[in-house]
């Protein structure tokens, strides 16, 4: 059986035996593509699919009150999704016993960010379905701005951020941006200008990047959701490389290890004080 068939069979069994009351997975909507599916009846499990266009990181749905109201969920998790769940558990937004995790080994979705993924196997799941096609070898992450001067990098990002319309789609789709009230919406004091101009756009995008440093699981949903096509993963590449070089940190590989920037070790380098 391929991954889709196995997923349907497992989901049907979990609903029938009462292990879960809803399955959060993927389905094909009438207009094509893929969308999140919320299956509550065993006979509807044939709607579930798993293919190279199952882009969405579903983990954020576990936080939604309307999803919690459906009962205990079983959720389909790719490698990056499972890491996001671990971050949410570590940050006390989820309890592991409150959901059932169905991991599906992801050979890579049809988007660029997947080409450098090194964690195709989900972590911390109750069960895992093996990939039904070959897993491509990860390509080295390349920061296209690495060899540019500081002025060139600054100009690149100012040009890119000038196109931002402050719609916050990047925040809304990100499972790690889970604050009940975002700093962007606070106006007493107002930390971020709300208008889409150079100052406000720069503040928003840089604050968000630093808030995700050592926490981002590189699912790429922020970049995919951006209506202006901002290369947001360029920031994530740089942050990931720095976190790995300085702290040996890969976010979300388990639910216990604190984020690199949320803890301190005596062996940490302190060259940033210089």
Description:
The chain has 274 residues and is of the alpha/beta class. It has 2 domains: 3-129, no CATH class; 150-268, no CATH class. Helix content is 30%, strand content 9%. It has helices at 3-16, 65-68, 79-90, 150-161, 169-173, 198-212, 221-225, 232-247, and strands spanning 22-27, 35-39, 73-77, 100-104, 127-129. A 5-stranded mixed β-sheet has the order 2-1-3-4-5. Helix 3 links the parallel strand 3 and strand 4. The chain is globular.
Specify the number of helices. Answer: 8
Sheet/helix structural class: alpha/beta
Would you tell me the overall average pLDDT? 89
- The H-and-E topology, N to C, reads as HEEHEHEEHHHHH
Distance between the termini: 58 Å
The description of the largest β-sheet is: 5 strands, mixed
Helix content: 25-40%
Strand proportion: 5-15%
* Spans where pLDDT lies below 50 across 5 or more residues: none
Count of domain modules: 2
What overall geometry do the principal axes of the alpha carbons give?
globular
Please outline what is shown here:
The protein has 274 residues and is of the alpha/beta class. It has 2 domains: 3-129, no CATH class; 150-268, no CATH class.
Give the topology, please.
Elements: H1 3-16, E1 22-27, E2 35-39, H2 65-68, E3 73-77, H3 79-90, E4 100-104, E5 127-129, H4 150-161, H5 169-173, H6 198-212, H7 221-225, H8 232-247
Parallel strand pairs: 1-3, 3-4, 4-5
Antiparallel strand pairs: 1-2
What attributes does this structure have?
274 residues; five-stranded mixed beta sheet; 8 helices; 30% helix; 9% strand
């Amino acid at each position: 059986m391929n991954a889709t068939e196995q997923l349907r069979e497992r989901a049907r069994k979990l609903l029938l035996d009462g292990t879960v009351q809803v399955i959060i997975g993927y389905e094909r909507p009438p207009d094509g593509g893929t969308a999140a599916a919320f299956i509550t009846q065993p006979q509807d499990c044939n709607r579930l699919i798993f293919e190279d266009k199952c882009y969405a990181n579903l983990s954020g749905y576990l936080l939604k009150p309307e999803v919690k109201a459906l009962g205990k969920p079983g959720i389909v998790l790719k490698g990056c999704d499972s890491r996001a769940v671990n971050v949410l558990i570590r940050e006390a937004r989820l309890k592991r016993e409150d959901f059932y995790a169905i991991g599906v080994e992801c050979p890579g979705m049809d988007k660029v960010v997947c080409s450098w993924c090194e964690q195709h196997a989900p972590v911390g799941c109750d069960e895992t379905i093996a990939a039904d096609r070959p897993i491509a070898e990860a390509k080295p992450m390349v920061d296209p701005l690495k060899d540019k001067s500081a002025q060139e990098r600054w100009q690149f990002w100012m040009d890119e951020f000038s196109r931002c319309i402050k719609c916050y789609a990047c925040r809304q789709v990100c499972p790690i941006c889970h604050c009940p009230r975002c700093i962007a919406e606070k106006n007493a004091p107002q930390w971020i200008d709300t208008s889409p101009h150079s100052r406000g756009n720069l503040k928003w995008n840089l604050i968000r990047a630093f808030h995700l440093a050592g926490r981002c699981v590189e699912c790429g949903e922020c970049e995919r959701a951006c209506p202006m096509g901002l290369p947001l993963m360029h920031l994530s590449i740089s942050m990931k490389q720095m976190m790995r070089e300085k702290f040996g940190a890969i976010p979300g590989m388990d639910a216990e290890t604190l984020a690199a920037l949320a803890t301190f070790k005596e062996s940490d380098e302190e060259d940033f004080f210089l």
